[in-house]
Amino acid sequence: MEQGIMDNHQQNSSLSAAESVRSLDAVVIGAGFSGMYMLYRLRAIGMSAQVYEAGDNVGGTWYWNRYPGARCDSESIHYSYSFSPELEQEWVWAERYPSQPEILRYLNHVADRFDLRRNIQFHTSVTSAHYDSATNRWAITTDTGERVMATYCIMAVGCLSAPNIPKITGLEQFAGQIYHTSRWPHEGVDFSGKRVGIIGTGSTGIQSIPQIAKQADHLFVFQRTPNYSLPARNRPLSAEELARTKANYRELRKAARESSSGATYDLPEQPRALLEATPAERQRLLEQAWQLGGFSATASFTDTMTSLEANTYLADFVRAKIREIVHDPAVAERLLPRDHPLGSKRPCVDTGYFETYNRDNVTLIDIRSDPIQQITATSVQTSAGAYEIDVLVFATGFDAMTGALFNIDIRGRNDLALKQKWADGPRTYLGLMTAAFPNLFIITGPGSPSVLSNVPVAIEQHVEWIADCLASMHEHGFNTIEPDVAAEEAWIQHVNEAANRTLYPLANSWFLGTNIPDKPRIFMPYVGGVGVYGKICEQVVAKGYEGFRMW
Ligand code: NA7
To answer: Which residues pair with 446 in a beta bridge?
Structure first.
């Protein structure tokens, strides 16, 4: 048996199973940003822990999403761990936005620097996690046939990690290569001389389309919903800029944690209500934000996610930009997002996306007006015609926030399946835990800011909250924690009310689960903002872990 701070409990529990299987304080599932940091913090409080990871290396999202053009939309200086000032000082970010290979190098560096790999088992998917009331322990099984017991089971599975591949008639007949952007071959794909079809124009499609178009003989883009996209204006980071950031990192991190989105923006003016500005000022502010690039356009205004009028103003500005960029007016018209407010689906950030439609080797197909009817051995057929292709790329996103959890058979008290408990939508207290599943923690779970924020900030806050909670329980002689049903109910109501005060519910989006057939339409992340949410979590602790029971 491994040594850990819960050993007293382990000795008291029924040993019949524990003797034949490995027994630990904690099992962490996933070795991305969250699982790696969770392991680090568990070690720091003296717990024995094992991380299981399906991939053959660390990185999570950044291990899997290797499609051409993959890049983070958060800026490098914010999209990183803050827990180690030494790490902050030694790592040198190359560009304003980090590319996928750079983030993966960074996470590998973190794994080596903090000697994390010795407690991470790669090539191993957890298939089930069952809570055993008799021993008050979690029994965890893997696809490699391993079985371990742990007091705590911590889900670090990511919010966007279960790929969505739509069921399209005839897909199995296709004779060419099929790829999903989040399961990209490590050796890359050579599109030279190929006719390529891509389905999906979310963040991933918008990043990869310009890159694939440069290489392919012809690219057919099958678009269901036109999307807003803002120019990234990526650039190398200068030595002076990096030095300034490194000198101010503590202030920057504090500001990010207190902010709404988990990042701060270098704006020349304080954010203000768009509707309070005169028409001339609005135009100036919008143009300024467009030139600054990235999320500056949404960060510059305080009312675009709550006022449809303000949002329409911003959206009209972006639509005018698309018309300016795209030469063919008919193509531009098909690219104009009109059925949802800007930001109500995750806004995209691009490099040369709309410009790509000025290339002769790119064709945009509107599958809303001409739906895909079937895929044959050599083509995608819509109601308007057949498009002959050699390669088909799915950039169709994920079963977000719950998909990766449901891929594991998670069972709590009385054999209750998580999937069953959440049949009408996820139910959590603070996005951290769910009643009837004692000692099961979810990092950036539904009901927390997670995907609405610069995710590493949300991850660090959750990991630290969990580690502090476990340390405090140990100090007080407890080994079990579970939220009250009433606290959970009140939190769900708060999450829904907060979303309903915004424009988010006006779009069909993966935030609401509407990209997956038959998924309940529930707004899953918490829109209250990272800063507000962090304060709520602190108050819960200050009030003796209000809403939780410990024993
Ligand atoms: P997204 O943002 O979910 O985008 C998926 C795209 O695929 C989107 O354009 C979808 O159209 C389209 N899609 C999904 N299912 C279908 C079907 N059945 N037929 C046609 N088109 C379809 O995923 P991404 O990978 O781009 O980005 C995910 C997140 O990663 C992103 O938001 C960032 O947070 C990082 P729709 O809009 O649903 O009509």
So the answer is: 448
**Tens of each residue's pLDDT in the chain, 551 residues:** 344 554 434 433 444 444 468 999 999 999 999 999 999 999 999 999 999 999 999 999 999 999 999 999 999 999 999 999 999 999 999 999 999 999 999 999 999 999 999 999 999 999 999 999 999 999 999 999 999 999 999 999 999 999 999 999 999 999 999 999 999 999 999 999 999 999 999 999 999 999 999 999 999 999 999 999 999 999 999 999 999 999 999 999 999 999 999 999 989 999 999 999 999 999 999 999 999 999 999 999 999 999 999 999 999 999 999 999 999 999 999 999 999 999 999 999 999 999 999 999 999 999 999 999 999 999 999 999 999 999 999 999 999 999 999 999 999 999 999 999 999 999 999 999 999 999 999 999 999 999 999 999 999 999 999 999 999 999 999 999 999 999 999 999 999 999 999 999 999 999 999 999 999 999 999 999 999 999 999 999 999 999 999 99
Give the Å distance between the CA of 255 and the centre of ligand 1: 31
Cα distances (angstroms) measured from residue 152 to each of 83, 129, 130, 132, 433: 23, 11, 11, 12, 12
Strand partners, 129: 140, 410
Distance (Å) from CA 87 to ligand 1 centroid: 34
236: burial class by Cβ within 10 Å (0-12, 13-18, 19+)?
exposed
- Token look-up 């957890």 returns 126
User: Which positions ≥6 away from 179 have C-beta within 8 Å?
Assistant: 67, 185, 189, 391, 392, 393, 394
Name the residue ranges covered by the structural domains of the chain: 18-162+400-550, 165-228+344-397, 265-341
397 close to ligand 1 (CB < 6 Angstrom) = yes
Q: Are the CB atoms for 549 and 470 separated by under 8 Å? A: no
The rounded radius of gyration (Å) of the Cα atoms in the chain is 24
- 18-162+400-550 and 165-228+344-397 share one fold: yes
Return the bridge partners of 120, or none: 51
Ligand 1: centre distance to CA 345 (Å): 10
Which residue minimizes the CA distance to atom 14 of ligand 1? 396
Q: Which atom of ligand 1 is nearest to the CA of 346?
A: 32
Helix (H, G, I), strand (E, B) or coil at 344: coil
Nearest to 382 by CA among 364, 396, 367: 367
Contacts of 276 (CB under 8 A, 6+ apart): none
What whole-number distance in Å separates Cα of residue 66 and Cα of residue 366?
A: 26
- Take residue 109 and report the two structure tokens written for it: 């560096």
Q: Which fold is adopted by the domain 165-228+344-397?
A: FAD/NAD(P)-binding domain (3.50.50)
Entry pTM: 0.96
136 Cβ neighbours under 8 A, 6+ residues apart = 9, 13, 151, 438, 439, 479, 480
Q: Does domain 18-162+400-550 have CATH number 3.50.50.60?
A: yes
Give the Cβ contact number of residue 158 at 10 Å: 28
